Amino acid sequence: MQHHDLLGGCPLSDLSYRVELTPPDIEPYRAGNTGIDYVTRFTAAEPGPHVLVTALTHGNEICGAIALDRLFRAEVRPRRGTLTLAFDNVAAYREFDVRYPIASRYVDEDFNRLWSPALLDGPRRSVELDRARTLRPVVDAADFLLDLHSMQYATAPLMLAGLLPRSRALARRVGIPELIMCDAGHAAGPRMRDYGGFGDPASPKTALLIECGQHWERRAAEVAIDVMLRFLIALDIVSRDDVAALGGPDFDATPRQRVIEVTEAVTISGEHFDFAADYRGLEVLPEKGSLIGRDDGREVRTPYDNCVLIMPSRRLVKGQTAVRLGRYVE
Ligand SMILES: [Zn+2]
Prior knowledge:
Number of helices: 8
Number of strands: 14
Bound molecules: zinc ion
Helix content: 10-25%
Strand order of the largest sheet: 1-3-2-4-7-5-6-8-14-13-10
Shape: globular
Order of helices and strands: HEEHEHHHEEHEEHHEEEEEEE
Structural class: alpha/beta
């Protein structure tokens, strides 16, 4: 039952992606060294920023767990500052089942829609809220955050840089992937990458969220590893030579990076949302007024020419984001 609920009406037979990645055993990282399960911290003698890399914010996005596992196994340590590695929604990850790979995104609710002080300080409880409250001091302590994700459809990797110029600048220093998306998040609730100082124009704290590719394609793990390594190099936490042996196909890539500014999210207001076509993401609809879909029969159309469709959802549930709309600005 639960599997079908989470699919929001999407039949299992529609899931045509092969699971090419093997979920790593993260039990060795449970104890950690911070007093919080699945959170490990390494501190260098030389002072420097506190950098946090997180995986499994969504339990079925296993490329991030593979990247952290790789870093742990290579015994990479920061040359300066502090490096904290965290597996977020472990409860959902434990439910990962290759037969129902989409079902383990979360247990009770989306961990990445809970990051407002009001919700975190509030009385409501869920598996994800409990975990977010436990991890909150870890996120509070970080100066820089990279949150490793993957997507439902096999489209090009996307760096989600939020709205602040300093995040966009850091995405350019990381240098991959080619596409940087500047967006405000979701009506359903704030993401970890927008929480506290990370979303505050007056704070120096800077966060990035990488969507590495389709959830279970081999390529997503390669992107996760290379983006993570280049993020750590950009912040001078490790040197290039420290981690060159771990690098994959994008370790030395220098693509021309393009920026998509997200202008709005299409939030589902009705009981039934249908897309007008089988959108996979990054389609550019040339003409203003093109039909995107129907929300309880109400037509949703593109608000301007050359509108880019970003990450159309397969989970078409009232209150959630169906798709985001944007345009190329750089
Ligand atoms: Zn995700």
